Amino acid sequence: MHLDVLHLDDAFAVVNKPAGLMVHDSALARGETDFAADRLREQFGRPIFLVHRLDRATSGCLLLAFDRESASSLGKVLMSREVQKDYWAVCRGWPEEAFVIDHPLDGGPGKPQKKPAVTRFERLATTELQLPSSGFETSRYSLLRAELETGRFRQIRRHLKHVSHHLIGDTSHGDGRHNRNFRMLGIHRMLLHARRLGFAHPRDGSRVEVVAPVDAEFAKALAMFEGFDADARDR
Fold first, then answer.
1. CA pair distance 201, 185, nearest whole angstrom
2. Do residues 38 and 44 touch, judged by C-beta distance below 8 A?
3. In whole angstroms, how far apart are CA 142 and each of 40, 129, 156?
4. Does pLDDT of 122 surpass 80?
């Protein structure tokens, strides 16, 4: 039940949150009783302060602090542009090799006010599968690197929907036909992974850079993109 620890020191830790695990209790929990926050308090044997959140269906780097001062400092770092937050995402279609989505988003349920939201995307690889789709004999998919400039509610998922390059496995904002294609291939999770987190240590300014490995289902999806070397991307 323990989460894999990617970085640990006296001030904070970065863990690899699995897909399907809620970070903390909320109105979206709907009777759920298993939360990453509770697991981590038991795992570390001390209070923890979540510095940011990941959607339940998203895996990867989750940052937490062990005291309020460190949590506050890290929170300010994450709100600045001095942090690197990279995600891997698999979407339908072949978008441009590099593109930016600048599209305001609301704050989710009960928060109708729209605020600026910007995501930068880089296309890392493409594939074409022998699966019929929308009158075509094949279906095209892309592996993207997404870099957040803002942190709005479900930002990457909603931005990809906005440009009709829906995130695979997203049951809220995705495309059901393409989700079914991947389920037939044995991939049942949403293909969004918080791959890399980089920032200055709040106490001494040293560079902290953490990379979270993908799970077996995401790795199965990556194998569909011939020529893509995940390890090479990290060097």
1. 41
2. no
3. 34, 11, 14
4. yes
CB 35 within 8 A of CB 79: no
Q: Write down the pLDDT at residue 82.
A: 81
Q: Which of 5, 1, 2, 8 is nearest to 213 (CA)?
A: 5
What per-residue string of b and e applies to 114-144 under the rule 16 or more CB within 10 Å gives b?
eeebbbebebbbbbeeebebeeeeebbbbbb
Q: What is the mean pLDDT of the chain?
A: 92
- Residue 154: what pLDDT? 93
Q: Which of 10, 25, 55, 67 is catalytic?
A: 55
C-beta separation of 187 from 127 below 8 A? no
Task: Tell me what pLDDT residue 234 has.
Answer: 60
Residues 6+ apart with CB under 8 A from 193: 58, 59, 60, 87, 88, 89, 212, 214, 218
Structure-token pair, residue 96: 């441009």
Q: Is 102 annotated in the active site? A: no
pLDDT tens per residue, range 159-187:
999 999 999 999 999 999 999 999 999 99
